[in-house]
Structure formats: structure tokens, C-alpha cells
Amino acid sequence: MSSKYKKMITKALFLYLPFFVLLFSANMFPQKIITTLGGSRKVELDTLSHWVKKNRIGFDISEIAFVNWNAGGNSSVSGLIKARFNRTYTKDKYSWTNELIVRYGLNKQDGIELRKTEDAMQLNSTLGYRKDTLSNWYHTAKFNFWTQFTDGFAYPNKEMSISRPFAPAYIFLGIGAEYATKDKHKLLYLSPFTSKTTMVLDQILANQGSFGVKKAIYDLNRNLIAEGEKSKVELGFLLTGFYKKEIVKNIIIENRISLYSDYINKFGNIDVDNDLSLELVVNEHVKTNIGIHIIYDDDIKAKEEVNGEQVTVGPKLQLKQVLGLGIVYDF
């Protein structure tokens, strides 16, 4: 990574990370300042704060072991650490919702090295204004950021990474209208103007044209003429939805969907991201999770192992299924 982009990332972290640390620690101790008749000021706990906070930290595990098992099989264990932090400010006609989602999972099988199963860090922020306190429709500005923590590989190949931290990273920024219920369990957002910035801050991946950025230019002898670009900016239409409901006692369904189409590059070709999960509640701290995550993005080209070499093929539907027993802590 060039020093230019290292400086850019460092500057962004110094500028924005303290802000979000303060934001997510805000309302831990809501306060109000009271001025007495004598002019002195004192700070008291504000029991009527407009901030609402929700935190959840969890750990899922799945394991299978074989001892003298005649049918054969490989013992394996998988673990997933996950966390979600929500901060919502509501006052009169204004609403500001912030969400930080972190997930990281690993798997170990007999005879096979440790492998990553999940890796994501997502930040969502929505600022809304409505014409009156009875309406569920808001004029909305929305910001979304997504990246990962560690390198990703097309296993069994571990020599060449197919993704890295900030390679890719996605930033969505747009304005539109959002329908939101009071409990924020039903959300529908429509934006005719949303910019999508794809960052690939790894020159090797950028030179390959990974994740849709402009790839490097070489001459006939494979000498580098121009390096690949490390970012790509699009302007398009965005539709997102969120739905959460207890469908029967102790079974909660949650679905997130995002549909995006760029106006300039193949308008009508839709990027799809749909994450559906079922949470089966055993008790306050023990829950079973069943989920399916589907992604399709024309800019993400699949990589396959052919005769010992990693070959880039066309875009494919990405599918992930999850089943795990987890321990969660809400605070």
C-alpha cells in the first residue's frame, strides 16, 4: 500500500473514529445542566434523554468429533464472534440512527490449516426529518460503510489473497425517503441519488481490476505501463429494507435487503445483498441462529483453482448458510 493511501486511511481514522467512539459512548450517562437562581450550575442525570442505546455481543460455536468412527469423517470446530451496537436519537421531527456491526469467524478441521469463515465490519448512519410527529415517512440522508479485518483467500490457495482490509471497502452516501416504524423494526428506504465508492487500497488487487476498479495496463511483454486505479465512484438508485418480527413465540425473523443499480454503467443491472436470519430463543442468553446470505455483484469476479493456478472467472451468485448455537449478552 502506498504511503499516500496509508496517510489517507490514518487521517480518516483520526478524524472519524473518535467521533464514533464518542457517539457510541454518548447516552451512557445522559446529563442535563441546571442553572440555579444564584447563577451557579450543576449537572444531574437526565432521565429523559432522547438517546436510546442497544448493545449485543455474542459467540456462536459448532463442533463435530469422530473417534473410531467406521464411516469416516473429519473432526472440526467453528467459532464466530459477533457484536452489534445501536445508538438512536429521536426528538420531535428528527431521528438519527447509528449501527455498528462486527462479525469474525474461524474454522479448524483435522489436517487442514485454520480458515476464515466470516469477516465483516459495517457502519450505518441514517439522519431523518419528518413533517410532523405522526408521520412514519422521513426525508433521509444515509451513510453506509463496509470492509473487512483480515486477508481473504480462495481456499486451498493461501499464497495469493483475493481480498484485504480496505480492499474492498464500500461507501454508500445518498438522500431519499424512508418509511420507519417507531420501534425501527420495519424500514424501507428509497434513494434516487446514491453514490457508491469502491476502494481497493491494495495495488496488486487494483492492478488485477478486482471489484470493478480500472485494472493496470501492460504492453505485449507484460511490462507495466499504468497502474490500476484504487477507487471507483458510481451514481445510482438504492433501495434498502429491514424487517424484524417475532413470528411465533421465541422465534424471531430478521431480513435485510439492499438493491443498487448504477445509472451510467449498465443501468438495470442490479447488485443484490440479502441477509435473512432466524433466531430461536432458548433463554435470555442462549440462542440458536439459522441464516442465509445471498450476494450478487457484477463487479465481483469469482476465482477458481485450475491445474494449481488461480483463475479469474465471471461473476457468480454468492451464497452463505449459517447454523449455530450461540451465547449472547445484551446491555
UniProtKB/TrEMBL annotation:
<protein>
    <recommendedName>
        <fullName>DUF3078 domain-containing protein</fullName>
    </recommendedName>
</protein>
<dbReference type="Pfam" id="PF11276">
    <property type="entry name" value="DUF3078"/>
</dbReference>
<dbReference type="InterPro" id="IPR021428">
    <property type="entry name" value="DUF3078"/>
</dbReference>
